[in-house]
Amino acid sequence: ETGVTQTPRHLVMGMTNKKSLKCEQHLGHNAMYWYKQSAKKPLELMFVYSLEERVENNSVPSRFSPECPNSSHLFLHLHTLQPEDSALYLCASSQVDSSHWGYTFGSGTRLTVV
Amino acid sequence: ILNVEQSPQSLHVQEGDSTNFTCSFPSSNFYALHWYRWETAKSPEALFVMTLNGDEKKKGRISATLNTKEGYSYLYIKGSQPEDSATYLCAFRITGNQFYFGTGTSLTVIP
Question: What is the pLDDT of residues B36-64, one digit of tens each?
């Protein structure tokens, strides 16, 4: 366990469903991130929350909607997804005011859209 | 979008062999280079953070070097063991908060 917990580990959903991914960190970090990993592609940054404010949204379709209610929790709400959205979704956290900070990652949610 | 390339994409080595792979990144706006080790079904785990040209870091049998002027970092594994089997990711960081990841090198160590 890294201190960043993601649930569920696996999710299969239909294109008309609504579901949410959850991420929780108890490391006292002040920033949280959603990344998408598709096969044979680099990790792709989706959203960044720093001090609970969204500071980055990398042209992600509106069918993905993040929520950060506090510094320890991050959600990714999913609705009317497409099969090409099937991927591994990784959450990460960091302490951005420390020098040369890096990420602590969760284990990811493997999403399959059918 | 900045291009971070890792090579080879995958390799298989025999237990006991030493191996190395490369991360190439743009040489401008360099801030830091991170290496992660990612085992299947687990979280990517931080190995090294490298910041200075000529940096060398070591953790057990794994070491890394950094050349910021030519834009590359090498990761070396001495005497590979089956438990070293994983994907090794590098991430290039420019000033600010933005990280750019490579696609990883998948290492399989055959007993």
Answer: 999 998 999 999 999 999 999 999 999 99
Contacts of A47 in chain B (CB under 8 A): none
Query: Which residues of A fall below an 8 Å CB-CB distance to B?
Result: 2, 4, 31, 40-43, 45, 48, 50, 55-56, 90, 96, 100, 102-108
Contact: A107, B43; criterion CB under 8 Å: yes
Arithmetic mean of pLDDT, B1-17: 93
What are the C-alpha distances in Å from B59 to residues A53, A78, A107, B74, B77? 36, 40, 23, 14, 10
Q: Which residues on A lie below 8 Å from B43 (Cβ)? A: 2, 4, 104-108
pLDDT in tens, A18-51: 999 999 999 999 999 999 999 889 999 999 998 7
Residues of B in contact with A108 (CB under 8 A): 43
Residue B104 Cα distances to A97, B6, B24, B37, angstroms: 27, 6, 11, 9
Alpha-carbon span B85 to B109, nearest angstrom:
6
Nearest CA to B69 out of B17, B33, B37 is that of B33
* Minimal C-alpha gap between A112 and chain B (Å): 16
Give the nearest chain B residue to A91 (CA atoms). B43
Half-sphere exposure in the Cβ direction for A88 (13 Å, CA): 19
